[in-house]
Amino acid sequence: MRPGNIAFWFFFTAGGVWLQNVIPGVDFLAPGLILAMQEEKWTVPVWLGLIWLFIQEGTGSLAFGAGLLWYGTLAGLYFFGHWLFEARNFLFMFILGVCLGSMHFLLINVMALLQDWTVPLERLTMESALQALIFPVEWGLLYLIHHHLPDNGHAA
Amino acid sequence: MLAPGKLVSDQVSSFWNRYLYFVGIRQQNDQLLRELTAAKEELSGLRENASEVERLRRLLSMTPPGEWTRQGARIISHRLGPNAALETFLIDKGSAYGVTVNTPVVSPDGVVGRVLRISPTAATILLVTDPNSRIPVVSQKNRTQGILKGEGPTRELVLQYVPQDAPMEEGEVLVTSGLEEIFPKGLPVARVTGVGRSGASLFQLIHAAPMFAPLTLEEVALLFKAAAAQPAAPAAAAPAAPGLPGQPAAPAVVPPAAVAKPGRQPKTAAAIPPAPNQGGAPVATPAPAASGQPQAPAVQTGPPPAAPHAVQPGDAARKREPAAPADGTDAKKRRKPARPEGQ
Fold it and tell me: What's the pLDDT band for B246 if we cut at 50, 70, 90?
């Protein structure tokens, strides 16, 4: 991987964790996983996904497995979706964001139910809506920045 | 006569120095700017330190209840990430510091929560404001009992199961009752903000506000039972003194001089290692050194060893066998009966 890309993913991870601290309940790293699957070699999203999986599992309060289901379902949705849609289409990303927001609501509810916990539904609904809105916007910004990296072939 | 001339000279000199002769002014200006920047940074750091000292002083001013000890911890982060479903804090102390699940966490103002899960260097704290937190409390003045339940980060706590005729006043402090055997009795948890009735319910509708401000909290204290805190120290020292749980820790504290090489030990009764079923390992017999008796003469009376060599476990076993007749009865019991020939 080129040094510019390494720096990009490093700063993206640091910024994503910081934003997750600012707006809890929203995954700011998920758009990066989709971008890595679109733009990088297959090993890059695997390694990034592994690192981010441990970050999310470690910082979360759910039992181990929620992050695995989260990123696994996201990757699965992308794989199945890019057969039907143009992979770099904003509409596809918007649909993916809606699916991700719904999945956040469903996954947290199921995991909380399995652990005999109560989760405030209002907060969960708000987080799901934020996740659905933020995902495509963040992906779009990342896509632009990634294409303007100095040593990228797409750079002007 | 000279005054006007002196005045003119001073004015000219001042005009020259202040407006025309600027040699070194820029360097001096740069140096002063650097000093000012350094002073500002130092002032900022000192203000931060003063704030931290004030917070830590408040934390230390909190006296833990009897039979409880206190350990400070720093809050690393609040809720973070999509899997943060509960109202939690992350602190910088974990199982390596003796923290266990359900360890009480308090602030100078009152109870913060309890440890939900641990890792070696960090722990997740479940706050009292989380809907999954329920703490048995008693009102400080009227001694009315109830269960304090969280309702979420922006909502007040609810005191449940308080009968309609039980006395309760606004502003009353709710303290832990200690019935759940997690929190010590008498720690303030919340202050009653509203007392009312809800329809046909058998219980009062009581709201309370937590005693701490979650967003401004930076340090907390962990409370340990004195009896429970003691095993943490041996657990921390376990890597330095490995051994079976039932064995004494003597090998770890025996001075090097007392652990003489087996090849140099005298063939005396005191030097004979005990039988395996009598307890104690051969290494764990530092009786002469531990009792303070001189051991050098006894060592020198015996014949010198044939040749020093590395002691193997098998050597100890072989050396133990000739010593067995000293304890004749036990030796007979231990001895495997000879198998008659021909069978």
Answer: very low
Contact B172/B140 with Cβ under 8 angstroms? Answer: yes
One-letter amino acid at B264 equals R
pLDDT score for A147: 84
Rounded distance between C-alpha atoms, residue B81 and residue B78, angstroms = 10
Overall pTM surpassing 0.80 (yes/no)? no
Contact B127, B112 (CB under 8 A): yes
CB B112 within 8 A of CB B229: no
Size (chain B), residues: 343
Residue among B91, B47, B63 at smallest CA distance from B186: B63
CB spacing of B83 vs A104 below 8 angstroms: no
Q: What is the mean pLDDT of residues B240-266?
A: 38
What percent of chain A shows pLDDT beyond 70? 96
Residue pair B121/B94 in contact by the 8 Å Cβ criterion: yes
Query: What is the pLDDT, as a whole number, of residue B21?
Result: 77
Task: Map residue B75 onto helix, strand or coil.
Answer: strand
How far apart (Å, rounded) are the C-alpha atoms in residues B311 and B299?
18
The amino acid that residue B86 corresponds to is L
Among candidates A21, A27, A119 on the partner chain, residue whose Cβ is nearest the Cβ of B77: A21
B163: DSSP letter: B
Q: Report A:35-74 residues touching B (Cβ under 8 A).
A: 55-62, 66-67, 70
Query: Looking up tokens 């509960």, which residue turns up?
Result: B86
Give the residue from A135, A120, A125, A86 showing the smallest Cα distance to A105.
A125
